[in-house]
Amino acid sequence: MIRVNQIKLPISHTKEQLEQKIRKMLKLEATQPLVYKIVKKSIDARKKPELMYVYSVDVKTADENRLVKKVNNNNVMLTKETIYCLPKSNLSRFSGEGNRPVIVGAGPAGLFCAYAFVQCKIRPIVIERGKTVEERTADVSRFWQTGILDTSSNVQFGEGGAGTFSDGKLNTLVKDPVGRNRFVLETFVKFGAPEHILYENKPHIGTDILARVIQNMRHSMEEAGAEFRFHTCMTDYRTENGHITEIELNHNEWLRASHVILAIGHSARDTFRMLAAKKELHMEAKSFAVGFRVEHPQAEINLVQYGEKYADKLPAAPYKVTANLPNGRGVYSFCMCPGGYVVNASSEEQRLAVNGMSYSGRNGKNANSAIIVSVTPEDFDSQDALAGVRFQEKIEQKAYQLGTGKIPQQLFGDYCRNITSTTYGAYESDTKGAHILCNLRGLFPEAIENSFIDGMRSFSREIQGFDREDAILSGVESRTSSPVRITRNESFMSSNVAGIYPCGEGAGYAGGIMSAAMDGLKIAEAILGTYFTR
Length: 534
Hints:
Layout: E1 2-10, H1 15-26, E2 35-44, E3 52-60, H2 64-71, E4 76-78, E5 102-104, H3 108-119, E6 125-127, H4 133-146, H5 180-190, H6 207-223, E7 227-229, E8 234-240, E9 243-249, E10 253-256, E11 260-262, H7 269-278, E12 283-285, E13 288-297, H8 298-306, E14 322-324, E15 330-344, E16 354-357, E17 366-375, H9 387-403, E18 407-411, H10 412-417, E19 431-432, E20 435-437, H11 446-459, E21 472-477, E22 484-486, E23 500-502, H12 513-528
Parallel strand pairs: 5-6, 5-11, 6-7, 11-23, 15-19, 18-20
Antiparallel strand pairs: 1-3, 1-4, 2-3, 8-9, 9-10, 12-22, 13-17, 13-21, 14-15, 15-16, 15-17, 18-21
Helix pairs in contact: 3-6, 3-12, 5-12
């Protein structure tokens, strides 16, 4: 197979023009057969006003070795398709009472761990404190409309995990020599996602499509023998001779288990506390980041990113901004949602957190992103494993009190001047959940507040108007990643309790849908007893 990179074409090109360009770069005659597959598609907006689509494609044709030598182009090379393969395993090892793998959490890490087992004809048990994605969607909508929170079924908890109510971004920076990334994307497509996620540079599903995909995955796994138990929380566990033997469910039932995958998500604070109280697993506080959701008019982001000629002709534009400040803190955008909404993402009474969400069409009037400032264990009140959890809880409690349960908001100019906002500027907020204008100063320590302001000023040098006076801030963005790491060894098992496998974002080993799903696959591989060497 031949990989052809850097195929550049005008925005308005046709399929025929793409094929012609491929033939030209490979010096193929018009009569020679051409079979190709797009592996990457992105927009090059560096030379405005003219923008280009840039493709990478894989081509199958006759005498490929000779052709590559003949072409002699650095953008044309031989490649091999990496096909992800799960290991074969002794099924008897995972049958019978107590031997079926038990997965705690039905987010992307837990779901893909379960899916890997199912592909090997092993019937896992998946427990999830929340509800099915259908029920969960109804609960979340009711919360946004009425403010009535279900603490086990919300933006954070329930089938699909926290990423279900987000932009559904499917890009990751995790290196992937064995094809897990492609396997996850192909699985999403198999269960209803659009095929373009296989090659877009920054693929996304959108919360509306992602919910259906997750539901279809579960139905398929159930048909193959997987067991899903919703409304079921792990509340304790027992060990014998240093190996897990059973877990407690909802404080009233014990389930025998020799392999337990902790894919608990970044917001399972009660589970973190239970694990810490047992004093058996090694846990530690880890760095994360906090800040605000910041909204800008999507039309203006489009204009800056695409230029006037294409601002209204291309999909809603994303952005990514970062800054390393002289004080040593990093400030950066996170979970940017083109054409999205700021959502109330609370999961606990008397505490408030926000997130961003886009539907598949990304047709909301505003762009929003978390603009967040790094925090480290040095910022916490102590050095124990739960210090970061308490840091989050403190600022979320302040945010709840400030907005009396509504999302507290402020214009950036007023935030800099430390005065209460009383009205929006040239545009209003696109929000899911009640919101109220107030003064956000005091939610964070002064060093973080000043770093946030410095970051916003810095980003305006990249994106004109980013620090506009009427940019809308919503507080607080506190659930960017887990505040805890549950350490594991080279076999992906807990360092000191055999049979427990910390997994995904909640355990501190992932940072989004894709990396969490891929970590779930890694855990399944480890339990099946095979490592991939290629």
